[in-house]
Amino acid sequence: MTIRMVGAAxxxxxTLGLTSVAHAKTFVFCSEGSPEGFNPSLYTAGTTxxxxxxxxxxxxxxxxxxxxxxxxxxxxxxxxxxxxxxxTFNLRKGVKFHTTKDFTPSREFNADDxxxxxxxxxxxxxxxxxxxxxxxEYYNSMGMPDxxxxxxxxxDHTVRFVLNKPEAPFIANLGMPFASILSAEYADKMRxxxxxxxxxxxxxxxxxxxxxxxxxxxxxxxxxxxxxxGGKAPIDNLVFAITPDAAVxxxxxxxxxxxxxxxxxxxxxxxxxxxxxxxxxxxEGLNVGYLGFNTEKKPFDDKRVRQALSMAINKDxxxxxxxxxxxxxxxxxxxxxxxxxxxxxxxxKYDPAAAKKLLADAGYPEGFETDIWxxxxxxxxxxxxxxxxxxxxxxxxxxxxxAKIVTFExxxxxxxxxxxxxxxxxxxxxxxNGDPDNFLYVLLGCEAAKGGTNRARWCxxxxxxxxxxxxxTSDVDKRTELYEQAQVIFKEEAxxxxxxxxxxxxxxxxxxxxxxxxxxxxxxxxxxxxxx
Amino acid sequence: MLAFILKRIALVxxxxxxxxxxxxxxxxxxPGDPIELLAxxxxxxxxxxxxxxxxxxxxxxxxxxxxxxxxxxxxxxLGRSIVTKTPVLDEFLSLFPATVELALCAILFAIAIGIPLxxxxxxxxxxxxxxxxxxxxxxxxxxxxxxxxxxxxxxFSVQLGWTPVSGRLSVMYYVESVTGFMLIDTLxxxxxxxxxxxxxxxxxxxxxxxxxxxxxxxRMTRSSMLEVLGEDYIxxxxxxxxxxxxxxxxxxxxxxxxxxxxxxxxxxxxxxxGAILTETIFAWPGVGKWLVESVRRRDYPVLQGGVLLxxxxxMAVNLFVDILYGLINPRIRHQR
Lengths: 532, 336
Description:
With 532 residues, chain A is α+β, with helices and mostly antiparallel strands. Chain A contains 20 helices and 19 strands. In chain A, α12 runs antiparallel to α14 (352-361) and α19 packs antiparallel against α20.
């Protein structure tokens, strides 16, 4: 009896959590890990972006919530010169920075903040360039150093970017986390105070939420920015309760200790969907899983062999067995959530007999021996590469191709496959900026074949011409046309077997209103509300 | 006594060399380049890769890397995390109190339950109680912690709703860290309900972590007690007509506890190992969870420094227990 009473008392304490504070709305997100830091330009993990850029910072341009469409952000509008080299941004007026316990902004957002945020990353002589390790991974990997010639302040509310070459996806890059705008005034003040690192630990931005405090590995607290330029967020407090284990996140969601959790265990989804207190949203992810043929090696330099092996794979069986409902069959190298997705393309049908004939035509009537590289890690675009490799192996066996399955530790796998040691390799990609270029050029362009991200090492001039032209054209309709054509060539040439696009599941409490799944895999809480 | 202590301290030196060498070598034997891992599918161009390796000192031969590491450690510099760029020692110090708090509660739980159980089982030797307790203890000892922890959560937090699922404190409370010990800090803060919240958050992880030490302590107490109960002086005490309680509590227990103290000292190492799993499951922001993260991210400095610090703590506790043991049992300190 006493135990029962103690239990009941504890239960009250436990549920106190979410119910006793109806007056100030607090939203709890059971995040999956600790942020690496609080300046998104220094890091690459989605966990860090959720904790920083996606909720507390703004960019010149923003993706419309739940889409890959670029819209105005801290820049109200922009003009691109006819040669595609000059981008002029008209900055929003009246944008207020966060006021924190260490900092009260004396001015509103202006061009200096834009210059600070970009120059810090791009200019090795900038006083803050070396701060916090000074590695700007995304700025570099998106090719910004080679792309940006100069950034000029025209006046307080106009900034001009001059590029070295026309690059249409540039505008989408500016919507990415690394391009977030921080307060230059705060940075100056912290540098003068001898604590320059504060800009990266306790940043001051313009976003809908502002950082209150972070208890390492435990809790991140934010409150709504009262003067947010887009209007104050419907929720008053935002809390990230860091919970690394997916089963425990689910338990917390059930117990009402959090409102929303990322990355559920696929095995729990059925129970979640059956629970009236929990809603599960789903959406196709911005990614693709593929099996790439090393087109530099025989026999994969012959497109008939690539086509034959594409036909030999029973894709439906693989999707059913590997993704368990969390994947959709892919026919194009870009996911359907990206504009210019060519839905008219027909995938290779599963046809072992035709595959065998095609192999014979190519001079391999008895098949040949090869390898399949299978990733050692789970990825949304391929949750079980090892098992998938076994299925592909069995399918290929039926047309006479004997494949050995090869795997390495993840870092080693990435490195060796970049160097082209494989014959065929499984991998995938998650989009950065929602631009088709970010898939087609980065993964299938000739430059990438040299750099290694093009694991098929496929450099095909007709395809290359199309995607390079699309890069130089700022007209979206024209670009769409070019990319649609490029996808036709891709399918015909078959450098990859396109396997699947993942489906993202997003469980949340039933009282959560208007959450939208971010195609970039982020968790954005501006605009989200809680039913009373 | 002084010679005894000095001898024990001298033993720390080879252990220190062993620990640094092992952690240093093991993490490097695990394949996987930290820079490739950070870059992921995106990749990194070879020039930047080389520059980063040089910056992290990974381009030097392994032996000289070890030399640099050791000289840094001896001058008190454990390096900075590759990921967060903060000094390893600072991170450790900010997380360590959480682990200590959890470990202390777990060991207190284990002692408070384990010793009485062991005594009763010994006194009621061969009874149903004895068999049941020892059977349960064996089960507890063989239980995988992560499974046991999840089971506790599902029953007590999800089904019954008695305790919170995870974390150290309800997110509704914010308590400034003064000592780093949540139980103390919540009391100091004076915030209503915060202390209860901290206690309720501690219960399940302490049970999960304390289960294995509890089983060991209970079994150790029982066997040690049985041995002592068979001694002549116990028979004498009984023959004198002393009350059974006095015989057990005063005459037998004092001597039976000596090996149990050693076991408790050794349990500190076990607790740290267990903390790694327990903390990950209960989202407990301590050093265990931190170390797991560092393996995943191939964060060499954190892993090396973290393991070294944990090893130092374990060595210190064992040294303390040895000394304590010497004090309790003069036979040990006079041994040559």
